[in-house]
Design goal:
51% of the residues lie in helices and 28% in strands. The protein is of the alpha+beta class. It has a single domain, classed as Heat Shock Protein 90, CATH 3.30.565.10. Strands 1, 2, 3, 4, 5, 6 and 7 form a seven-stranded mixed β-sheet that branches. Helix 2 packs antiparallel against helix 3, helix 2 runs antiparallel to helix 4 and helix 3 packs parallel to helix 4. The longest helix is centred in the N-terminal third of the chain and has 27 residues. The chain is globular. About 2% of the residues have low confidence. Bound molecules: adenosine-5'-triphosphate and magnesium ion. Adenosine-5'-triphosphate binds next to helix 4, helix 5 and helix 6.
């Protein structure tokens, strides 16, 4: 069972994360941004919402500190759509799996940035695949039909979005590969055989 201390610890970490995100946002503004203040604040709001929703899902769930991956991802995409007033066409093909709070925060921040990018720069048609081998989980985020994405711009981005993703990848001790061949694809492989995740990986469920 997840103990209160663990949640307190995580809340403090999340507040620190929010503070860092806002700090990086300020740096970005200093370096010159052509976005409207409204758009910048919307993105900051979305980043904070992604964290709040993890705690919402956690407190609503009957499980002890476990978060259902597919349920969270679906709720997250709906929230991002609502914030930016643009629909995301999402299909999830995922094993039934529950993650610890720690992993879900890292995955949630990554997916939130990818959803925002799909809305701001891409096709808004997304497939998410989650599979598992004996030791690793493999998460694939596919943006369908994105033929225009400039991989160099993404990989070399000095902006907050990709920087945040890279930070979370490091925390997860994951490996990320980005490809484009008709679709824009991010493949994220991370270890998930120990207590950092809780699972009942049965069949692939399509949502
Ligand atoms: N889905 C996508 N389709 C096409 N281009 C993309 C996509 N995602 C990212 N890019 C390109 O990569 C760049 C870097 O992305 P990144 O998320 O770091 O910055 P951003 O979205 O411009 O701003 P922010 O820091 O608010 O996220 C984008 O400016 C855009 O040119
Ligand atoms: Mg972005």
């Amino acid at each position: 069972m997840i103990i209160k201390n663990e949640i307190d610890h995580r809340i403090k970490n999340s507040l620190n994360l929010i503070s860092s995100i806002l700090g990086l946002q300020i740096l970005n503004l200093k370096n010159g941004s052509h976005e409207s203040p409204q758009e910048i604040l919307k993105k900051s709001k979305s980043r904070i919402d992604a964290l709040i929703m993890i705690y919402d899902t956690l407190f609503l769930s009957k499980d002890k500190g476990e978060i259902d991956f597919s349920v969270y991802v679906e709720t997250l995409s709906e929230k991002v759509s609502k914030t930016f007033h643009k629909k995301i066409l999402l299909k999830i093909y995922a094993i039934k799996i529950k993650f610890s709070l720690e992993i879900m925060i890292e995955l949630g921040i990554i997916l939130n940035e990818l959803f925002i990018n799909s809305i701001k720069h891409g096709t808004r048609t997304v497939e998410i695949h989650l599979t598992k081998t004996s030791r690793h989980c493999i998460l694939i985020y596919l943006e369908k039909g994105n033929k225009a994405a400039d991989l160099h711009k993404i990989k070399e981005s000095k902006k907050l979005g990709i920087k945040l993703i890279e930070l979370m990848i490091k925390q997860l001790r994951a490996v990320m590969k980005i490809k484009r061949n008709g679709d824009l694809g991010y493949t994220i492989k991370f270890k998930c055989q120990d207590t950092r995740y809780i699972t009942a990986p049965t069949n692939i469920l399509k949502r």
